Every structure is written in structure tokens, then in C-alpha cells.
Amino acid sequence: MRLGAWVRAQSKTTIALGVILASPAIGMAAIAAEALVRARLGDEMFQPPTRIYARPLVLYPGMTLDRARVEGHLQRLGYRRVSRGAVDIGEYHKSSRRWIIGRRAYRVSDRLDPGGVATIRLGRSGRINGLEGPRRRRLRSVTLEPELIRAAHGSSVQDRIPVSLSDVPEYLVNAVLAVEDQHFFEHEGLDAKRIAGAALANLRARRIVQGASTITQQLAKNLFLSPKRSLTRKLREMAMAQTLERRYSKEEILEAYLNQVYLGQDGAIAIHGVGRAAQFYFGKDVSQLDTDEAALLAGIIRGPSLYSPFRRPEAAKERRDLVLALMHERELISDRAYREAKGAPLGLRSRPQRTQIGRYFVDYVTQELAAVHGRKARERGLAVVTTLDMDLQRIAENTLRKGLSRLETAYPRLVREDAPLQAALVALDPRTGEVRAMVGGRDYGTSQFNRAVHARRQPGSSFKPIVALAALSHTTGYTLATTLRDEPLSLSTPAGLWQPANYDRKFRGDVSLRQALERSLNVPFARLGIEVGPETIVETARSLGLESFLNPVPSLALGSSEVTPLEMTRAFGVLAAEGYRSDLQVILGVVDGEGNVLSRSEEDGERVFTAAEAYLVTSALLGAVERGTGKGLRTFGYRGPVAAKSGTTNNFRDAWFIGYTPSLAVGVWVGFDDARSIGLPGSGAALPIFARFMIEAFGVDGDGDFSMPWGLEVVEVDGETGLRGGRGCRGEPEVFLRGTAPRVSCSRFWSSVRRFWSNRSRRDREASPWLDDPTRRRSRRSGR
Fold this sequence. Notes:
The protein is of the alpha+beta class. The protein has 27 helices and 28 strands. The strands form 9 sheets. The chain has a 5-stranded mixed sheet with strand order 9-1-13-21-22, covered by helices on one side. Strands 3-4-5-6-7 form a 5-stranded mixed sheet, with no helix packed on it. The chain has a 5-stranded antiparallel sheet with strand order 15-14-26-25-24, sandwiched between helices. Helix 5 (170-180) runs parallel beside helix 11, helix 12 (313-329) runs antiparallel to helix 13 and helix 17 packs across helix 22 (611-627).
């Protein structure tokens, strides 16, 4: 029986310690200790916390190496940069044409990645030409260990990585025994000689200067007793130690001790066990520790604060050398090994940067875990690999926070102490549905409400692309060149008279569908929504992934129904993915504490619109950035191709800006939680945050262009007539589904008009001979 199993079994078993132990005092202490054991035991005694990781960083031939991103990733994980070409585990070397990374071993899936040294060879352009592993073995890809987003400890503040005794190097075991309990394999829980020696030393000093606790006693104390020193506690400790020795082998006790021993602090989290300590101090798996590193861990046990190598390196080195001397004295290491280990530097990893980012995202992941895995998700010791891109997440949080501060500085009326201005940002990969960044508010510490996922707000004009798609894809005869009337509209509804108006309260007569979408004209889109039908618009929105209630009324076309930022970003993502709707994903895989794969990401989705239909809307949204409500992006300096749309609701309560490139869809919402007016349109409040995010993420030139899919044709269309361009009226190029472009040429139309006016002029001359009078004609030309 393993010790962990015994610990749980004690709640059902009563041990007659008083009969076993000779001393009545110790017997009474044992009975009391047994009651304490039954009250304190739990299933989580040796379980590590659930760890939630970001998406691993994968390098492969042909990709352009983002040097700053890779180096930032390594430094946050505590890798040391070295100038030499020969790197050790946890180190990296870089030059203009070659990077060498000593990858650490890690396990966050169903297999252990052993790590090892990887060489990345670069071309002049910065692209990766080749990847090599140990002994110059060619590699298809190199995966760097993922960043830890959060370790979910539940009510515990302890962190550990359980290891079996067989995984612990022999010299680490020897180091611990040499300094903590040299007679461990000889005593039965209590070391009489050591007790007598300690008592004599303490008597001479007239204070406690030496302890006599064995490893078994330390384990009993750590598991069941308080650190407060007293005779009663000591008696309980001794009783429990002897009980442990009777029930379990020395190896089982030693393994439990190595997993339980306290070895320092990582902020507010206590490091327990040699498995977690090896990672924390050296960035290594415990099986990869060197002799000097093992001696340092053993030395820390006596006083993790006193001998902290991060804060007191000189004291830590002195303690390590003492352990090495004890090992050498007992002939546990050779003369050569002793000299090499004593001369070695401490070799600590760079202390990893603690992060508090992605907290809204982690909450969402936790909810998804519970929804998918039920009770299993509440277990500790899970490893959860997510879709989060840590670099994009950092950019998202910084741009959102700074963007809100800039708005408040520019518009002091937005400053509210009781309920501050809020925002949300979502970024996802449209091809896979993976959420790459999520910010649910400006400050998680103040408000944990995730506005990206749970805040339902009116999308305003950002809903118009959905209406356009409904018109263009349902064989209703609409094209981007279709003429819509921009004239006053009044409609009787059960809620009263509905009279939509444009943003500037002006009317423009006839406009094309493209112009109405690029300029975000409300009245033409209200007419379009009525003609297409609210039910058809709801059906289109459902196909794009919107799940919130959508009221099928005429005002739906102008974004009157409430939706979430995540839903809207996903809908735009379907357009970016050329009509393919992927399932939303935030979890790539889940592994339990035993290494069993509970789930693995499987990309799933369906085609809901043709690539050609989706591109029609993309084409108009590209125009919105060049000529319409999204042209402010260019003012901020973003030059890359991007399809985007702003959104503003009645009384300026909500400001939206949503856009996409071929590889990323991003949605931004800005507003107050209580729906108070912010007095700014989406282009004024949300667009600046979107623009700065895109520039930080991709640079001013973006990340790639859109390609026009099969099934489309480009035809020049005359703006006045909506007819195909021709001789004398070439018009502007427009995109059509094949077979839907106008067939009649405007040349024919204008020829008919000219003939009509020519014939009319002839009839007028015949009816009015005075028109032929040269004098009268001169008078008309001169204005007399």
C-alpha cells in the first residue's frame, strides 16, 4: 500500500497505538494524534494543482522567426542567454544566422517531451532554413515549452509535482540522507542516539541548538501537525512516526517525504517536494539534476528562507558545500565528483516572471472544463493546454487599458469612479475557431465579470454585414451594385412609428448596396432588411454562430438585438474563413495526473456559405476601411489589408469596431456597464483600440492579403445607372457572383437617352421655328 492510500484509509481505521507503544504518555499522544489524522486527511494530500498553459510556441522550416517574440518567451520561462555556442539545458545562444536553445523537458500532454538542444538555422531574410536536434538530427518542428498561465490551487497554497522514488537520482537521495537523517535505514522512526546527542547539546547551550527529528518524524509533522513547538506535539510526532514505520517500507516513507518537504516560496505559493523545487530553482526535471544541484536542494531543507539561493546566494552555496562535504565524508561521491560539484556555480535559472495576464480567459476555460468534463474537471493535478497566445494576450490587455485611459484623458466626462468606462476585446483564429486573446474588462481585480463572453449589448451598425450577407447569399437578386433608396422611411410597428435616420440626418437619394455598407447608411439598410425579411436575417446570423435571442423585427437590420462581443467576432471570423464556421475552441488538450488524455482538440465545423458569397461582404468591408467608416485605421498608420466595420447604438451607449485579416478576427466593444451614453461612435471609441492592437500584433503592413475565390467575376458598373460599363461610360469595377452581373451596357442606355433627346430637340425645332433664329441662339448663350 502506498502512503497516499494509507493516508486516506486512516479515516476508516482505528489504530490501538496505546497498546503498541510502551510509554503511557506517548500512547495517549498517539490516540490524540489518531483523532487529528482522521479530521485532517483528504484526497488532495499529495495532489498537484491543476495547471493551465498557453498555446505552445512551435517553430518550423519556412516560417519567419520573430526574434523578439521567441526571446521574450524564453526569458519569461527563465532561460539564460549565454555567449558561448555550447548551451546547457535552460540556456540559449543567438546570432544573426543561428539560434541554439537548450530545451527543458516538460509534460503537458499524454507524452513527455524530453527537451534537448535544438539548433535553428536562419536565412538572410530571417526565415528558418532548417531545424536540428542532438547529433545534428533534422527536425520537422521544434516546440518550446508552453508558458504557465495559472496554477489552480483551490483552497491550498501549496504547489508540487509528485515524483516516484525511481525518478529521483541516487545522489539526491544520498544528499538528503547525509544532511537530514544518516541512520534512516537503521532506526524505526526514532533515532535514540541522535535524541541523546541533541539533548546533551541543548543542555550544554541551555537552549535548543540541535534537533533530533528523523525523516519519518519530519513527515509526520508536515502531514498532520502544526509547526508550533510543544511537548504534546512532540509526543504526537513520535507516535505517528513509529506508526508510519510499522505500516510502510522505508522506500515508501522516503518517497512521501521527498514529495512533501517544504523547499521555498514562489510569491504566495509554497513550493513542496523535490519535483517542483527542481523546476523552480533549476528549470529541470528532477531526474536531470546534477550532483551540485541535488546538494543545494538537500541543503535548503533545513531553512528554505535562510538558505534561499535567489535571495541569499552566499549562504546557499555555503550550505550546499556542507552537504557535499558530508557526502564525500561518507564516501557517497568520489574525490573528483566532490571537487567538480564544489567548484560549480549555483547554476540557478533566471527567476521566471510571474504573470497575472489572461485571468478572464482562465475563468472561461474553467467554465468550459466543467461543462465538458463535469466532476472530473474539479480534480487537482490536471494539465490543461489552451489556445491562448500569450503575446497577443499581452498586447490586448495593454492596448485596451491604455486605450481607455486615452479616452478618459481626451473626454473627462467619461471618468466615473463608481462605475468606470469598460471595454472588451476578443481575437480568434477564423480558420480553427481558436480564441487567441480575450479581455473581459479593464481590471480583473475590480470586476471579474467577463464582458467579452457574458455582456449582451446592441451591436448597432456592426450588424449590417450580416444583413448584407443575407441579401447577397439567398438568391434574392441582390448584388453589391443593387440600388437602394436613401429617402425618408416611416413604418408602423406594434411598438409605434419607426423612422430610422442616418448618422448625419441627411439623405442621398439612390445609393448602391456597397456604398450603403461602406458609409454605414441606416435608411437604405432598413429598407434592405425589410425586403430580405427579418426571419432570413435571423437564419443568416444563426449560421454565422450567433446564439443570443434575435428579435425578428425591422430594426434588427440596424443591430437592435443584443449579442456578445465573442459572438460578433466569431461571426466576422466566418467571413474571414470564406464561409467556413469553425467550432469555438479554448482548450487544446487535457491530461490528468496519471498521464491519461481526457480530451484532445479536434477541429470541427461546417461550411455555411460559399467562399464567393463571403468574399462579397469582405470586399465591401475592405472598402469601408479605405473610403468609409473604418478609414480612421489609416489615420493611425495601419496600412495592411483589413476588412472591418464600426458600430454605434442609439444615444451612443455602445461603441464597436470589428475586423479581420485572413488569419485573425478581432472585436472591440467600449461602453459603460449601466448603458450610460459615452457620446462617441464606434469609430471614435473602439477603432483606436483595434488599430493599436493590430499594429502591435502585425506591424503597420499587416499579416497578408485576401485572395478572391473561384465563382466571382469583376465587372465595371456605371454608378448612375447600375448597368455594365461600356463605351463612353466605363464606370467602376465591382465584384459579382458569376452570372449575376448586369448584362445591359450603359452605352446602350446612354445611346437611347441621346437619341431620345435628339429626337425631342428636332420635334421642338419643328414646333418652334424661333429656335433656329441665330440671334435668339446667341442671346441664350450670352445670358441676355
